[in-house]
Amino acid sequence: MATPALKPNLLDLDLAACEALVTALGFKAFHGRNLFKWIHKHGILDYACMTDCPKGLRTALQETVTLRLPRIIHTQPSADGTIKWVMELEDGQRVETVYIPEDGRSTLCVSSQVGCALNCAFCATARQGFNRNLQVGEIIGQVWHAARQRGAAPSNVVMMGMGEPLANFEAVVTAMAIMQDDLAYNLSKYRVTLSTSGIVPNIYRLREVCDVSLAVSLHAPNNPLRDQLVPINRKYPLEELLPACRAYLAADQRRKITWEYVMLDGINDSIQHAKQLIRLLEGTPSKLNLIPFNSFPGSGFATTPPERLATFRERLMRSGLLVFTRKTRGDEIAAACGQLVGRVDDRTQRGVAIAGIRPPAGPATRCHAP
Ligand code: SAH
Questions:
Q1: Residues with Cβ within 6 A of ligand 1?
Q2: Do 344 and 74 meet the contact criterion of CB atoms below 8 Å apart?
Q3: What is the pLDDT of residues 302-355, one digit of tens each?
């Protein structure tokens, strides 16, 4: 018999795989559906609490599979309501997940890798290098925890945490399918967003297998500058990236690419850059998010001053582009874009007392895995 560590993890399975497992164990497929629903919709991990699960199936599951989740080792609330969770994986690696409430909605920023290999010049995650891909259960486990901690599934999920989601293609696609499943987190395709720095072949692949919203980390309007800021551009330059993005949209005329553009003082924020950007995005349905640069020790960059940012934005909007300035959230707990490093430092231990934040709930149900 397999040792427990080698048993498959139920959290790695999408609905079809869950049904296949249960039928392979000699039970009807609908028990697989129920099992999937108990885990993801109700947050129940204890077979004994799954009232419609036949006894024989419970025993078979106990013998053949396990239920393994990341472990929340630190919860850090921020004054603006943002919460950062540091999660520890089975091998002791850590990733971060950020919950951002706003106007009755909530967005969960989910990690896809431990570290990142892409080495973008202005990103804190890049500094820790690449460690490994997350498994499906480690990705969807972040959503599972958020739903339990907050008492409801988040209204949006953005694959904008640590890592490059398109470099962990299969696991990310399966996890996003679980997010969208109405027996699980029931998020529409407009409420799941994958952000990529531009791995062009995988943008084409993605289009074949799912239709989530696509965000692209642009950060520069020309190749020489983007080569420096987002080095993957040397492999997949703008003249390849833009057609891939347009092809991604082709299936749905109402959609737009969300371009992320981090505002770096004196680097990519001149009127000349704005004009290049307008030309570059011509003919591609676009929404542009300007992100004030979030600093971290030793970054070597500063954010564009507000007046210049306003002028830059104004110039873009005059051309008819849809432009937003992203509010920086969770900055003081290092939970903002590009600040996630999976570390628990002293600052995070202080236990900031913040008004308006519900203390993290204990185990969501009695039937919670140990
Ligand atoms: N690797 C994917 C997913 C990460 S998303 C991607 O590149 O799209 C995180 C977003 O925050 C990206 O747009 C990233 O470029 C941006 N970012 C990284 N470091 C940042 C920083 N220090 N300040 C502001 N935004 C940053």
A1: 120, 122-123, 160, 164, 195-197, 217, 260, 262, 291, 293-294, 337-338
A2: yes
A3: 999 999 999 999 999 999 999 999 887 777 777 777 677 776 543 333 222 222
273-307 confidence digits (pLDDT tens): 999 999 999 999 999 999 999 988 899 999 999 99
CATH fold, domain 71-355, is: TIM Barrel (3.20.20)
How far is the centre of ligand 1, averaged over its atoms, from the C-alpha of 100 (Å)?
16
**What is the model's pTM?**
0.91
The rounded Å distance from CA 205 to ligand 1 centre is: 22
Domains 10-64 and 71-355 alike in fold? no
Q: How far is CA 200 from CA 24, 48, 79, 132, 207, in A?
A: 38, 46, 38, 21, 11
The yes-or-no answer on residue 96 being catalytic is yes
Closest atom of ligand 1 to 158 CA is 5
Closest atom of ligand 1 relative to the 339 alpha carbon: 22
Question: And the tokens for 2?
Answer: 């397999």
Taking a C-beta distance cutoff of 8 angstroms, is the pair 112, 168 a contact?
Answer: yes
